[in-house]
Amino acid sequence: MTKSSQGLFFFPPHLPHQTDKPIVSVKGVSLIYSNGPALENIHFDVVVGERLAVIGPNGAGKSTLFKIIAGVLPPTEGRVEVYGNEPGKHICIAYVPQRSQVDWSFPVSVADVVMMGRIGKIGIFRRPTRKDWEIVYQALETVQLQDYAKRQIRQLSGGQQQRVFIARALAQEAELILMDEPFTGLDFPARQTILNILDILKEKHVTVLVALHDLKTAAEHFDRILLLNHRLIAIGQPSEVLIPSHLLYAYGGQLSLIPAEEGTWAMEDTCCEEGEHSHA
Ligand SMILES: Nc1ncnc2c1ncn2[C@@H]1O[C@H](COP(=O)(O)OP(=O)(O)OP(=O)(O)O)[C@@H](O)[C@H]1O
Questions:
Q1: SMART domains recorded for this chain (predicted)?
Q2: Residue 17 Cα, ligand 1 centroid: separation in angstroms?
Q3: What is the ipTM of this complex?
């Protein structure tokens, strides 16, 4: 158990500090669904403790990539290695799904959802110990939802539900967390809470991949950005990736680009029809 400035927090004591050692290696991954290719020949590495933003237009393949890295979807070609092994064999990976992919009507309490993160450690036939419950409540405290533990998850707001799923990943003591569009539909304070949680994870050297649409957030809060549209268009520092030629290639020629901070570019915020994402 370690103590952070944000309160007590449980993490495996052996978690390595940031090094150049890849935690994830994506090697020539392609995925073809029945209606066509979602990913084509993707190669990249992520090092321990890194925070990588995965951006790209709707349907670019971000969720598909995360499911392959999490080991829940086998690629058609290529492979993913996590510490040199198949991803499905690793308890240390947590996938935080898009809110729209979850059935929120299920009658289950917030604490029970977070406890699901412990199942890999406890086993399905054993009862959670007092320490497991302590870990669950510490995770809820980290996402500032300790007062909501006994509520039904369907009674929470969208931003709170997202934080419950992040707490589940924390309770799992994951070393690699994949978050699929955690900011979508959240107001400014809720986004800020998630950014604060990302900072706590950084402090703990947890590797985090986040799929998102907001280029400004990607530029300001991530070590590197991966720009995807079925193929990997660019990966690197924000100032290397968020340049007009890459963005026009990924998003098409109808974009209105504006200069942003530190040599990066963003899209002018001209949308949104209901259900569309804001890119700027
Ligand atoms: N189960 C599936 N069966 C068939 N096609 C699928 C399936 N899941 C996704 N696709 C298709 O694969 C492509 C990539 O989808 P994916 O959800 O990975 O993109 P995304 O970048 O996460 O999109 P968004 O930003 O809209 O969430 C899309 O064309 C989508 O329609």
A1: AAA
A2: 34
A3: 0.98
Q: Are 56 and 8 in contact (CB under 8 A)?
A: no
Q: What percent of the chain has pLDDT over 90?
A: 51
Q: How far apart are CA 100 and CA 180, in angstroms?
A: 10
Domains of the chain: 22-92+177-271 (3.40.50.300), 99-174 (no CATH)
Question: Residue 113: is it exposed, middle or buried by C-beta count within 10 angstroms (0-12/13-18/19+)?
Answer: buried
Tokens for 77?
């070609």
Closest-lying ligand 1 atom to the alpha carbon of residue 228? 21
Total-model pTM: 0.85
Please report the atom of ligand 1 found closest to the CA of residue 31. Answer: 12
**Listed residue (267, 263, 258) closest to 239, CA to CA:** 263
Q: Within a 10 A sphere around the Cβ of 114, how many other Cβ atoms?
A: 29
